[in-house]
Each structure stands twice: as structure tokens, then as C-alpha cells.
Design a protein that fits this description.
By secondary structure, the chain is mainly β. The protein is built from no helices and 47 strands. Strand 7 and strand 8 (70-72) form a beta hairpin. It starts with a strand and ends in a 10-residue tail after the last strand.
């Protein structure tokens, strides 16, 4: 319960528990609010912004001046340092068509180009000329699908690597490299169609022993692992067809991990599990077959009638989630799987290991299971209430772990199969309190669709895991039917009532004895500052719209009281919306609400 009776007051609190399993037994919904840092409070959390993407320039005319090594265009709108371009045509000696160049040293409508976004040496060309250029664009008809967090393995830079639906590789950094702005996308290579057997769809990505591995499907349907050495020599050192994976890998789903127990790289696809093991005493070199041993999908075989979807490591075992209602356990030694966990849901989408347990995201009813490797139990059900639907169809989009939080995303469809926009964003469960809430809605608030990536956002140097982390430290990727987007946490809280919660649906009366309260009061733990506000609304049944009771935007107040505008009700539920400000915020730290004039002598009804 999120309410109790004190004298003649109904007191509503317990917000730190997050969303309850039922709207009749606790908080019904909670979005864009922080409840972990200060238990007992529900405050406005830090918001998100969209990552800067390269501008769309297609065959734009330029002139080139040899004396300054500068190119000039008619407009620089949307162009930033680090933007990758290719010259479609060029009449200047020393400027080549088809080469990836990076814009730097922008002055007005002019700029220089370099080979690599971190290079400080501009390309020198010897004659004036002209031509056309095109930017490499973050695009495609589907969202980003896969990511890898680099925590210091490559050039000491923490980055999030990702691919778009056109098989272009990008890096997202929350730091400045030379004059490349923070929170911008940098093009790293055009993987699709580079060679005759070039990858058309990237289905997996990971980092191992200083190399970035991409798994994907080529035109003939064979999976390929690519390896390239980074940062920052995009495309130049890529081996686009390093290894062919098993021809049994037909479903195109490739999920991989680097083992913290033995240091090996493992991946699954269809009915096979592959491994890449560095030769003891040697250093991995993709060009030296003696430096590694490779099992191309043959390290472990699943039953032919099943197909693998995901992989996780729990202790010394690997857990493989599949399309049937099993999680397979493998000790990395036996010829076959060493254990079998049976769950009451088909199709395991993700498994996330955290501490001594693993969390299994399975089925279409919003269920998360917990396992210690030998048994499995239901851990959490996403309440149907938060979807606004009766019997919704859930689809898990992504799941991850960081900062003692389970991060995940899901989409929901109604009975007609139509995607709904209420749940699109980053969700989290605090593993200490088991509190469920939506951390951040997508910055496109009307977005209804699939969120393809929710990942903890890394810091910006390896000496401090905190440096560079803002807000909830997440990145969210999605596609809104016209373009792909990535949201990132900012240092500014929400300022337009995006933060809200629904209280419990409270049974305050009966048909013979309805309840009429006199006042509604709210309290915060710190005074509101200028630009902040609290807004309270109510409804008397689960299907009704909320009606506003009052709003307070007065700086310096810790609480306020509103006269109620409803009477003789059997049920009441409140919507509390809060907003903060970018200037010295208090974050509108809500602690409780009170409903006045509960009849004296009446038993506690909760």
C-alpha cells in the first residue's frame, strides 16, 4: 500500500517503492522521476537530448583553395567538426574522390579536411578547384540494433559503438576529441557493400583484445565476423570477410559476450554457439591463425528444433536463451549443455547477469524471471496498467545492467496489433529496492515503436568511472518512421511537467457511504525555486480522464493546499505532475500527499 490513515488524513507516500504490481496496492505509474538517491522522495530526474547527427548533404557544390587548404560551401547548417564526407567529384590535385575525409577547423563557410576525426593535420592539396561532396548520414529504415561499451580497451577512450540499418559503423562519445563536439556521432566505416561479399545487415558487435568485431549477414546468407583496429582509422584497416560462421546460423540473431571468467569471446546464432580463444602465451592477431582457436558455431549445439536468441555469463557457466521455453546452461567444458531451466514463457529475448543472479526477459506478457543457474522463478511482471491496454502484447527490445539497475526497453501492441506510445523509453528496476519506473521517455514524446538500444553511458576517461557520466547515464536509440535517433542523458532536469506519478486507486467510500474530502495537500523536502511547479489532478474511476485540482509555481514553498472540486466518491486516484528548472533546481522533491477529513472513528480501510 502507498497510503495509510493518520487521524482524519489519508496519507499517500512510499514513492521510493516505484510502480506497484497492481494499481490497487501501490503507485500505479511513475515516469521521468528519480526515487533511488533519496529514499522516500520522488523528484524530477535529469532529462534527455538527442545526439547530434551529421547533416544531410547530397552532392553539395564546393570550391577548394590550395593556398589555405580550405573548402568553401554555400551553407554550413548542421555541419560540425568530425563530420565525415566523401567527394563525389573534385578538380583539385590532392583531393581524391571516394576517400573518407573529416571536417575540421571550421571558419565561417570554410573548413579543412583530415584523414580521421582525431587528426590535427589537414589534407594538403596543390591546385584550386571545385566539386561536389556528400556527408555520411546516420540513416535507414530501422533503428540501431546493437551496441558495445568500450571501457578502455581502445586508445583509452570510452565510447559506444553502433551501427545503423545501412551497415554503417558509428561511435558516440560524451567527450571532446580535438575540436569534435561532445555528444555527436562520428562515422567509423561503411561496412555494407564494401566488398563483393560485403555485409548487408549487422546483427552483432563486441570488443575483444583491442579489436572491434562485427557479426552480420551477407548476400548469400552466411554470417561473417569482421575485425578492425580502431581508434581512429575508419575503414582503412578493416577486414570485411575475416571469418565465415556456421551455415547453420540461419536466423540472423547474433548475440555475443566477452567472458569475465576466462576472457574468451562467445557468441550464439541459431542452433550453434561459437567461441574465439586467444592462444596461451600469444597475443591475438586476426592475421595469424596460430594466435587463436576458433569454433565457428560448433562449441555447443542446441537441439535442432530450437534456436538461440541471447547469451549471458553467470559465474563459470553460460546461459543461452532460446525460442522455446528453456534456458540452456553450459559449463564451457561438456560436449552438450550441462543444465536446463524450464520457464513458463516461450521466446527468451534477453538474459542479463547481475551479481549472483541472472534476469531473464521472456515471453509476451511482460515477465522477467530470476535465476541463480540452478532454479528459475518469476521476479517481476510489468503491470498491464502502465500500458493503458487490456491484455497487451509485450515485446522486449533491449536489456542491460549498470549502476545496480536493470535497464530495459519494451514495446506494446493492442489486440489489433497497433504499436502504442505510452511505454517507449528507458525503464529501470533498482536491484536493491526492486523499484520499477520509467527513467526517461523518448525525446520524441509521441513516438510509438521499438526502442532498439538502452545502454549505460560510459565515462570519458579510464582513470575515473564517474567522469563524464550525466543523469541516469544512458543512451536510447529508436526510429520514428522517418529517421533514427539517439537520446542521451543531460545535466538539466525536465522543465515541462514531463515527470509524473499516478497514486494508488484508493477505496475511500462505498455506494451507501461515499466520501467527500475537503482539501488536498502535497509536501516536498526542499522549497520550490523559480520556474518549478507541482500540479495535482484526480479521477474517480480507472477509465476517466484526470481533472486538475490545483497548481503551484510559487518559489520558496515546501507545501500547498487545494480545496477539492469533487464530492461523494467511492474511489479516488491522483495524478501528481512536477517540473523543475535548469537554474539551481530543487528538483521538486515530493515526499507525501494528504487527503483531509477522513471520518473520525472509521477503521483504516487499507
Amino acid at each position: 500500500m502507498s497510503y495509510h490513515i493518520e487521524g482524519k488524513d489519508i496519507v499517500i507516500n512510499g514513492f521510493e517503492k516505484g510502480i506497484s504490481d497492481s494499481v490497487y496496492s501501490g503507485v500505479g505509474d511513475m515516469r521521468n522521476m528519480e526515487i533511488v538517491g533519496y529514499p522516500g522522495e520522488a523528484s524530477v530526474t535529469l532529462g534527455t537530448a538527442q545526439v547530434t547527427k551529421p547533416a544531410v548533404y547530397n552532392a553539395v557544390a564546393f570550391t577548394s583553395t590550395a593556398s589555405t587548404d580550405r573548402l568553401t560551401v554555400a551553407s554550413m547548417s548542421g555541419i560540425y567538426a568530425g563530420t565525415a564526407i566523401v567527394l563525389n567529384t573534385s578538380s583539385s590535385t590532392g583531393l581524391s574522390t571516394g576517400t573518407v575525409y573529416y571536417i575540421q577547423n571550421i571558419v565561417g563557410l570554410t573548413f579543412q579536411v583530415s584523414i580521421g576525426p582525431a587528426s590535427t593535420t589537414p589534407v594538403n592539396f596543390s591546385t584550386d578547384g571545385s566539386g561536389t561532396l556528400t556527408t555520411y548520414q546516420f540513416s535507414g529504415s530501422s533503428p540501431i540494433a546493437y551496441y558495445a561499451d568500450n571501457t578502455g580497451g581502445l586508445a583509452g577512450i570510452n565510447s559506444v559503438f553502433m551501427t545503423d540499418s545501412e551497415a554503417k559503423l558509428w561511435v558516440f562519445m560524451n567527450q571532446v576529441i580535438t575540436d569534435v563536439p561532445a555528444n555527436s556521432l562520428i562515422f567509423m566505416g561503411n561496412i555494407g557493400g564494401v566488398a563483393a561479399s560485403g555485409i548487408k545487415t549487422i546483427t552483432g558487435i563486441n570488443i575483444w583484445n583491442g579489436y572491434l568485431f562485427l557479426f552480420g549477414i551477407v548476400t548469400v546468407g552466411t554470417d561473417v565476423a569482421d575485425v578492425g583496429d580502431l581508434l581512429f582509422t575508419p575503414a582503412a584497416a578493416w577486414d570485411y570477410t575475416w571469418q565465415n560462421l556456421s551455415t547453420r546460423s540461419s536466423n540472423g540473431v547474433i548475440n555475443s559476450l566477452v567472458s569475465s571468467e576466462d576472457g574468451n569471446l562467445y557468441w550464439i546464432s541459431s542452433d550453434g554457439l561459437g567461441s574465439l580463444i586467444e592462444t596461451p602465451g600469444d597475443s591475438f592477431d586476426p592475421g595469424d591463425s596460430a594466435s587463436y582457436s576458433l569454433a565457428n558455431g560448433d562449441a555447443l549445439l542446441l537441439p535442432e528444433e530450437d534456436s538461440a536468441n541471447c547469451i549471458a555469463e553467470l559465474g563459470s557457466n553460460l546461459l543461452i536463451g532460446a525460442q522455446k521455453n528453456f534456458v540452456y546452461v553450459w559449463n564451457k567444458i561438456d560436449a552438450g549443455f550441462s543444465g536446463l531451466l524450464n520457464i513458463p514463457d516461450y521466446y527468451t529475448s534477453f538474459i542479463v547477469a547481475a551479481s549472483n543472479n541472472a534476469y531473464v526477459f521472456a515471453g509476451t506478457r511482460g515477465r522477467i524471471y530470476i535465476t541463480n543457474g540452478s532454479g528459475i522463478d518469476l521476479y517481476k511482471k510489468i503491470p498491464d496498467y502502465v500500458t493503458g491496454l487490456l491484455n497487451p502484447f509485450f515485446q522486449w527490445n533491449d536489456a542491460n545492467f549498470g549502476r545496480n539497475q536493470l535497464y530495459f526497453a519494451f514495446s506494446v501492441r493492442n489486440s489489433a496489433g497497433t504499436l502504442q506510445d505510452l511505454c517507449s523509453g528507458a525503464w529501470a528496476i533498482d536491484l536493491e529496492s526492486d523499484a520499477l519506473r520509467m527513467l526517461n521517455k523518448t525525446s520524441d514524446a509521441a513516438y510509438a515503436g521499438t526502442v532498439r538500444m538502452v545502454t549505460p553511458r560510459p565515462g570519458n576517461n579510464t582513470s575515473s568511472p564517474v567522469s563524464g557520466i550525466l543523469g541516469n547515464s544512458i543512451a536510447i536509440a529508436y526510429y520514428n518512421s522517418t529517421a533514427s535517433y539517439i537520446d542521451y542523458s543531460t545535466s538539466t532536469p525536465y522543465t515541462n511537467y514531463e515527470s509524473f506519478l499516478h497514486t494508488e486507486m484508493i477505496p475511500v467510500g462505498t455506494i451507501l457511504d461515499p466520501f467527500t474530502p475537503s482539501q488536498i495537500e502535497w509536501k516536498t523536502s526542499a522549497p520550490l525555486v523559480a520556474g518549478e511547479g507541482v500540479r495535482v489532478s484526480y479521477r474517480t474511476n480507472i477509465s476517466a480522464n484526470f481533472t486538475q485540482i490545483g497548481e503551484t509555481t510559487t518559489a520558496g514553498v515546501l507545501s500547498d493546499l487545494y480545496q477539492t472540486n469533487f464530492e461523494k466518491v467511492q474511489w479516488v486516484q491522483f495524478l501528481v505532475e512536477t517540473k523543475s528548472t535548469a537554474s539551481t533546481p530543487s528538483y521538486a522533491r515530493l515526499t507525501e500527499m494528504r487527503v483531509r477529513d477522513w471520518p473520525s472513528g472509521v477503521n483504516n480501510k487499507n
